[in-house]
Write a structure and sequence with these properties.
Elements (H helix, E strand, L loop, with lengths): L2 H40 L4 H4 L3 E2 L7 E2 L2 H31 L3 H15 L3 H19 L6 H25 L3 H9 L4 H30 L2 H6 L17 H8 L5 H29 L1 H5 L1
Helix pairs in contact: 1-11, 3-6, 3-8, 4-6, 5-6, 6-8, 7-8, 8-11, 10-11
Length: about 290
């Protein structure tokens, strides 16, 4: 078989795989739009942002406010990201430039093992260890802080592993030139390695934050599940994902439509975040 024919077959299969991947995303978004259509058509959509509480099953005065849950999702993601991204990048720098070669393999294997731990195990650990420790400092224990710490620990290995790959891809010529000019290790890391690896590190952070936004099981076990705006990091919260998983099982048709709408809003928020980060990583490419 001639190489040109092999190339054409590979092009067809790869193109089909790319179309399938993009089509699945569009199908998911379309499914959410279809499920949320009763809310979008009835004019109840603005109530999601104007009502102060979430009581969709109330017979007297139903309330459809998702703002406390949306704020809870954002806060727990920001807290988790502020923990995981600096620690993950710092761990990757230590792995790449300071850790002896003998231990690099074991450090990477440990991170890969941590990344493969099921989320329910993180949630169980947080419920049995972290929540009681926070409760001793400031009741009730199940809180924004507990959810942020558990979620930050979950996404930490993803940030660390992707940052290691990004730092490893820095051209050796740059590092050797810096050493030849007598530039210290710390200056080489700050002025050469990290700037060169920034796109890869940013991509890893985006993936980790996207996982944090959509995580459910670990968060629902430690967040407290109270749909109120938190006054401090020790207050319980209820992210949108927790609401969907807790209420979808018994929801009526109108209630399900509200949950579909909440999921759609969450997907659009993630898409906006990914687009904003992609634009700010490479604005020249976007302009072209």
């Amino acid at each position: 078989m001639c190489r040109s024919r092999i190339d054409r077959i590979a092009e067809v299969f790869l193109g089909a795989a790319a179309i399938l991947a993009g089509g699945i995303v569009l199908l998911i978004v379309g499914f959410l739009f279809y499920g949320a259509s009763p809310v979008l058509q009835s004019g109840e959509f603005p109530l999601l942002f104007t009502d102060r509480e979430w009581q969709p099953t109330s017979d007297r005065e139903p309330q459809f406010g998702i703002v406390p849950m949306l704020v809870g999702s954002v806060l727990v993601t920001v807290l988790a990201g502020s923990i995981a991204v600096p620690l993950g990048v710092a761990g990757a720098v230590f792995h790449q430039f300071y850790l002896p070669s003998l231990f690099k393999k074991w450090n990477r294997r440990a991170l890969e093992l941590l990344a493969g731990v099921p989320s329910v195990v993180f949630g169980f650990w947080g419920l049995m260890v972290l929540v009681p420790a926070i409760n001793r400092m400031h009741p009730p224990g199940q809180s924004l802080l507990a959810a942020g710490l558990v979620l930050g620990l979950m996404i930490l290995p993803m940030v660390a592993l992707t940052s290691q790959v990004a730092l490893d891809s820095v051209p050796r010529e740059h590092l050797q030139a810096a050493a030849g000019l007598g530039i210290g290790r710390a200056s080489t890391i700050l002025r050469i390695a990290l700037p060169c690896a920034r796109p890869g590190i940013g991509a890893g952070a985006v993936l980790a934050i996207a996982r944090a936004v959509g995580e459910t099981m670990a968060v629902v076990m430690v967040c407290g599940n109270i749909a109120n705006l938190p006054g401090s990091i020790f207050d319980p919260i209820r992210p949108i994902t927790s609401t969907i998983v807790l209420e979808m099982g018994y929801a009526t048709e109108s209630h399900k439509a509200l949950l579909y709408t909440a999921g759609l809003i969450l997907v659009l928020v993630i898409a906006a975040l990914a687009g904003w980060l992609a634009f700010h990583r490479n604005p020249e490419a976007v302009a072209k």
